[in-house]
Amino acid sequence: MKKKRYLVDHLFTADPSAHVFNGKIYIYPSHDIDAGIPENDLGDHFDMRDYHVFSMDSVDGPVTDHGVALDVKNVPWAGRQMWAPDAAYKNGKYYFYFPLKDKNDIFRIGVAVGENPEGPFIPLENPIKGSFSIDPAVLDDGDGNFYIYFGGLWGGQLQRYRNNKAIECGNEPKDDEPALCARVAKLTDNMTEFAEEPRDVIILDENGTPLKAGDHERRYFEGPWMHKYNGKYYFSYSTGNTHLLCYAIGDNPYGPFTYKGVILTPVVGWTTHHSIVEFNGKWYLFHHDSKPSGGKTWLRSIKVVELEYNNDGTIKTIDGLAE
Ligand code: FUB
């Protein structure tokens, strides 16, 4: 399968986090709607209100929509905007992680718990203590430890924090200063809290220097994902305003990670967001674009394409505009 495939056409969906549970692929996307809110740099036009979960037995087989897995109406601490989610399985339960603004318009990360991979998920009373910003992605490290990665610039509010504390000015660093980083924290045994203070996910250039804030072609913007390949940790992410999906490789879940290249060149639409999963011995990139909506950035459609590695473990770049 080298051609890209759109997965559903009855809903607009984005930010697909794919996992293999019970021998099937489950996809946890954002559910885009046309809320009639004018476009701006803070992403107010991404005013999503619920989540659907999809599953499929094979990447080219039928896709099942399992219906609404979580609705903003049922989240006790909710303000607005349900953005890119993820899910994890541990000890007979499924944990659904979602970014949502609280009643003060501050993004937090919520957890909801279910008995089945497709939900429904019951939200906890409060978001994760100490959480901020957007785009949670959870790594099951296979040794009983789970790590949550998160953070996103601009509308995702990451620029408002330093050392995990809100700051007065809330601006991005100057171009020649180190770039802001995604965050990573180990999850507690019960999967519902940070087990430690979140740490910076540092991305180094080829000389071992942390990427600079002005390096818009390579620095982290949003949409973190972590996967393992041949014992290495691959941290992948969107560069936001330069519209690339990039990756960096490290030796452990915390990094540092060394920048390696581009996974996906720009697609139709402003945002680009993905996940990477192995299924039946092949690797797949799940992502989205805005082609079916005629380029409306807030009405996106999820798709899948095979992802290939070179012999040295680097990833072959995929053309975002190719069919
Ligand atoms: O879907 C809303 C936001 O757009 C996500 O949280 C970002 O990663 C971007 O895809």
TrEMBL record:
Site (Important for catalytic activity, responsible for pKa modulation of the active site Glu and correct orientation of both the proton donor and substrate): D135
Keywords of the record: Carbohydrate metabolism, Glycosidase, Hydrolase, Polysaccharide degradation, Xylan degradation
GO biological process: xylan catabolic process
Gene3D superfamilies noted in UniProt: Glycosyl hydrolase domain, family 43
Annotated Pfam families: Glyco_hydro_43
Keyword Hydrolase: yes
Tagged with keyword Hydrolase: yes
GO molecular function terms noted in the UniProt entry: hydrolase activity, hydrolyzing O-glycosyl compounds
Similarity annotation: Belongs to the glycosyl hydrolase 43 family.
Name of the protein in question: Glycosyl hydrolases family 43
Native species: Mariniphaga anaerophila
Lineage, broadest ranks: Bacteria, Pseudomonadati, Bacteroidota, Bacteroidia, Marinilabiliales
